[in-house]
Amino acid sequence: MIYDFRLGISKEFSCNYLPGNQERLLIVVDELHAQANQYDYLMHQGFRRSGEQVYRPHCKACHACQSVKVMVQEFTPSKSQKRSLKKNQHLRLVKSRTPSEQYYPLFERYINELHADGAMYPASAEQYQSFLFTHICKQYFVELYDGDKLVSVAVTDELPSALSAVYTFYDPDYRKNGLGIYSILKQIHVAQSLGKEFLYLGYQIDDCQKMNYKTKFYPHQRLYNNQWHIVPSPSYSR
User: Fold this and answer.
1) Which tens digit of pLDDT belongs to each residue from 162-190?
2) Separation between Cα atoms, residue 60 and residue 77, nearest integer Å
3) What secondary structure letter does DSSP report for 195?
4) Are residues 174 and 80 part of one domain?
5) 34 is in which domain, residue-wise?
6) What InterPro entries is this protein classified in (predicted)?
7) Is the model's pLDDT at 30 over the cut of 50?
8) Is the dihedral of CA 51, 217, 179, 152 positive or negative?
C-alpha cells in the first residue's frame, strides 16, 4: 500500500556527525498517532523518528546518511559477535512492554558519564521522555539484568514487518562488556522470535567512525539512490 503524507523541510543547522557540514531534515507533518502501518511504510522510505517527530535527512549537498536494516532471519553472528554473546551470557534478558522507573537514573548516568561531549548532555527527564517514547507504534524495552540489577535497556519500536532500534543506554560500569553490540544481538534475537524480517539500526555515515558498528551485522541492507541494496557477509574471517 502507498500512503500520501504532507512533508516539510527544516532550516539548515550544524551537522552533529560531520563537522563543518550543514544538515536539514524532511519532516512528516501529518499526525501518525497509533499508525504503525504508515510508520512501517515510512521506515522503508528511509525515515526514522525522534519522539513523535518522523524525519529523514534532506541535505542539499550531502547524501552520507544511509538507512541500515539487518536481515534478521538470515543473520549469522561473526566471530567477534559470538565472543560478545559468550562474554555476556550471564546477563538475563527481559522483554517488557512497560517502561520502568529504573530507566531514567540509568539513562542519566549513561549520558552524563559516557556522552558528555554529545548533543544530549546534560541529561534531563524532559529530554528522556520526549526522545525515546512514542504513540506512533507499540514498543518493546529489551532489558538486561546482572542478577537483580538492571544494567541495560534497548528501546525498540515494533512495526508490522520489523523492529527498530531506537536507543540503548547502559550502566557505565559495564562499558567493557560491549553492551551496545550485545543489545543489538539480543534485539536481533527478539526480532527473529517474533517472525520479523528486519531490525532497523538507523543511519550509517561511513566517515563517522562511531557509527561503523552498524555495518558489522550481516547480511544487511543499505538505502541509497532510493533503493535498498543487500550487503552480504564478507567471505573473509571476521
Assistant:
1) 999 999 999 999 999 999 999 999 999 99
2) 37
3) T
4) yes
5) 7-65
6) Acyl_CoA_acyltransferase, Asp_Glu_LeuTrfase, N-end_Aminoacyl_Trfase, N-end_Aminoacyl_Trfase_C, N-end_Aminoacyl_Trfase_N
7) yes
8) positive
- Phi, psi dihedral angles at 136 (to 5 degrees): -70, -40
Question: Strand 25-28 vs strand 66-71: parallel, antiparallel, or unpaired?
Answer: unpaired
d(CA 66, CA 222): 6
C-alpha cell at 6: 504532507
pLDDT at residue 216 tops 60:
yes
The grid coordinates of residue 190 equal 527478539
Name the band, by pLDDT with cuts 50, 70 and 90, for residue 236: very low
Has residue 124 got a pLDDT over 80? Answer: yes
Residues 32 and 145: their CA atoms lie apart, in Å, by: 33
- The answer to the question of residue 1 being in a domain is no
Question: Is there a domain that residue 61 lies in?
Answer: yes
Using the predicted structure, report yes or no on whether residue 102 has a pLDDT greater than 50. yes
Query: Using CB atoms within 10 A of its CB, is residue 95 exposed (0-12), middle (13-18) or buried (19+)?
Result: middle
CA–CA separation, 63 and 56 (whole Å):
11
**111 & 52 share domain:** no
Decide: 97 and 104 in contact? Cβ < 8 Å. no
> Do 56 and 88 belong to one domain?
no
* C-alpha grid cell, residue 15: 551537522
